[in-house]
Design goal:
Number of domains: 2
Largest sheet: none
Order of helices and strands: HHHH
Radius of gyration: 38 Å
Number of strands: 0
Shape: elongated
């Protein structure tokens, strides 16, 4: 019996280092896989941040290009006048629109003596005015919102 127990202990003691090496190798490989997964996740997140940064830089460059005068001649007065055409036309038409609305308000107030200012303003402000106002706001402020909604800008 002692011979059998001695033989079993000899067999186990000779295979124990190999079993420990196999177990250690398995643990090392599992650790390496976990580290590689973390590195891949970090790299993927880094690429997402880098892509967002590239899109933001491109958006700023596009905005700068849109606000730059169409053709720079090198003559400051010509470039100034070229850059002022759109804002001046916009402000002139806004002033004309305001004057027309003011005239309508004055006409309503003079025609009906019993009507107050707030009620006259309600009569002056029509559905077409709301549509025009929303179109102007959408033109000036809606570009980025639309691009964000379409998925181009995050």
């Amino acid at each position: 019996m002692i011979t059998l127990v001695g033989a079993l202990l000899g067999l186990l003691s000779s295979t124990l280092p190999n079993l420990l090496k196999l177990w250690q190798d398995r643990q090392d490989k599992a650790h390496e896989l976990a580290v590689l997964r973390l590195q891949m996740e970090r790299d993927a997140a880094g690429h997402g941040h880098r892509l967002a940064e590239i899109e933001a830089v491109a958006d700023m460059a596009e905005t700068a290009a849109l606000h730059r005068p169409q053709s720079a001649t090198g003559l400051w007065i010509v470039d100034l006048l070229n850059g002022l055409v759109r804002p001046v036309i916009t402000l002139a038409f806004f002033a004309l629109y305001g004057a027309v609305k003011w005239g309508q308000l004055e006409t309503i107030l003079r025609a009906a003596a019993d009507i107050g200012l707030s009620e006259a303003l309600i009569h002056v402000w029509h559905e077409e005015d709301m549509a025009l106002f929303s179109a102007i706001l959408a033109y000036w402020f809606g570009q980025r919102g639309m691009r964000r909604a379409m998925g181009r800008l995050r």
